[in-house]
Design a protein that fits this description.
Strand order of the largest sheet: 1-2
Largest sheet: 2 strands, antiparallel
Radius of gyration: 26 Å
Number of helices: 10
Order of helices and strands: HHHEEHHHHHEEHH
Length: 268
């Protein structure tokens, strides 16, 4: 008689196999349609994920439904390593995103961001010239500052100061408030003599492809986005981790069933 646990493992892995097809197709589409390095950034990881899910789900499906014990054993081993890896990553994600937050500024609708407020591990990632050159190129290609100009190009200074800006817009598209520059437009500021010790003041330039993309505040704004996204991913990981543990437990039952059935066949 077919065991319930074997059926459940087979059904779950069949669904996973179906899901792997659009993931793999999406990765291939990204690799062919992307016109810049930023657009092709995710193609290889997505393709790798699609292939991984397809191979693992096939191993679990065949191992459970066709009673191939060695395939089911390999499937359970991969599942165990995946659970362990996911658990470690979740703990790591919570740890590195524990520090850092935007600073509220008096009479401003936006916050200011300081690189030193974030974890050292994240700071090292964005302080690497190799990493930041790629990130900066992607930020410029995304035209995140252009949307700021389109929305409030002719806005008076008082109206601009009350606007809610995203962390990246605040850090990359305007100079820091302590520079005391004179407002002309959201991305056009007149430099004035300032005693500020903030080195971002010297890095600012009105040229659309420069602005504050070389500023520490821009790096901090990006890290604030990453922090927010990683926390959401970490919460989803906890849910996914519980699901994987349940599937792993069912798979262990299916593996035990396979061994019992093989024993009966060996000793009739």
């Amino acid at each position: 008689m077919v065991r319930i646990s074997n059926n459940l493992v087979g059904i779950l892995n069949f669904v996973t196999f179906l899901l792997s097809i659009p993931i793999l197709a999406g990765g291939i589409w990204l690799s062919r349609q992307g016109t810049s390095e930023c657009e092709r950034f995710l193609d290889r990881p997505v393709i790798a994920l699609g292939v991984f899910l397809m191979v693992v789900s096939l191993a679990g499906l065949i191992g459970a439904c066709c009673r191939v014990s060695w395939l089911l054993w390999a499937y359970l081993l991969v599942m165990f390593l995946l659970i362990l890896l996911l658990f470690c990553f979740t703990i790591f994600a919570f740890a590195v995103t524990n520090k850092g937050a935007g600073e509220a500024v008096s009479n401003r609708g936006y916050k200011e961001y300081r690189l030193g407020d974030y974890s050292e591990w994240l700071q090292k990632r964005v302080n690497s010239d190799k990493n930041w050159n790629k990130i900066r190129s992607c930020l410029q290609d995304s035209k995140v500052c252009k949307s700021l100009i389109d929305d409030s190009n002719n806005a008076p200074v008082n109206e601009f100061y009350t606007r809610h800006l995203s962390a990246i817009q605040s850090g990359c598209c305007k100079p820091s408030d302590d520079c005391n520059f004179t407002y002309v437009s959201p991305t056009n500021w007149t430099k004035t003599n300032t005693t500020s010790t903030n080195r971002d003041c010297n890095a600012w330039d009105n040229e659309p492809n420069t602005l504050c993309f070389n500023c520490d505040s821009c790096k901090a704004g990006l890290l604030d986005n990453i922090k927010s996204d990683w926390k959401k991913v970490a919460v989803l990981n906890v849910i996914f981790l519980v699901f994987l543990i349940i599937v792993y437990s069912i798979g262990c039952c299916a593996f035990r069933n396979n061994r019992e059935d093989n024993s009966w066949k060996r000793y009739p």
